[in-house]
Amino acid sequence: MLRYAVILLILVGVAPIVPILVEARIGTDDRANTAQDEVHAGSGPRTHRISVDRRGHYVADAYLNGRAIDMLVDTGATVTALPVSVAEDIGIFLSPSEYKHPIGTANGRVYGARTVIDKVRIGAIRFRNVEAIVLSDDSLGVPLLGMSALSQLRRFDISSGTLVLVQ
C-alpha cells in the first residue's frame, strides 16, 4: 500500500510539469511551431505565428491565389515581390513591355512589372488585393512578403524567435 501512495505522490508532483515538457518538445520542431494558428471566436483578431528558421529568416507557408508558396517575410521590403515563375504559377502573366519599373535591390537596379495578387492566405490571416512587383527569376530567387501586405495587419511583432501576425 505504501508503494501505491508513493507512486501517487510522484504522479501528482509531475503532472503539472508534463504540459511544459510537451510544449518544449513541440517548440524544437520548426514545422510544428511554424504552423501555429490561433483563431479567436467571433470577430476577434486572427493570429498566426512563424518561427525563425535556422538561417534567421521567417518563412511563411502562404497560399497565393490558392497555390501553396513559401514566402520570406521581409519587413524591409516596401512591396511584396515575386519571381516571374511564381507569378505565372499563381495565374499572373505579364508582357515584356510591362517590366518598366526600376527597382533597387541588394544586387543592383533591375526592372519589374507591377501587379496585384488577388488573395494571399497565411494560416488564419487573409490579405486581399496585395500590390506586388514581379522580377525576373535571376533578380529574385524567393518570393518576399513585404509591407504592401503586412500593412493590412493590425500589428506584427517579433519576440523570442517568433514572428506574430495579428489581423
Automatic annotation (TrEMBL):
Record's keyword annotation contains Iron-sulfur: no
SUPFAM superfamilies (alphabetical): Acid proteases
GO biological processes: proteolysis
Any GO MF annotation of the entry: aspartic-type endopeptidase activity
Keywords, in A-Z order: Signal
Signal peptide: 1-24
Protein name as it appears in the record: TIGR02281 family clan AA aspartic protease
Family annotation (InterPro entries): Aspartic_peptidase_AS, Clan_AA_Asp_peptidase_C, Peptidase_aspartic_dom_sf, Retropepsin-like_bacterial
Domain of life: Eukaryota
Transmembrane segments: none
The keyword Repeat belongs to this UniProt entry's keyword annotation: no
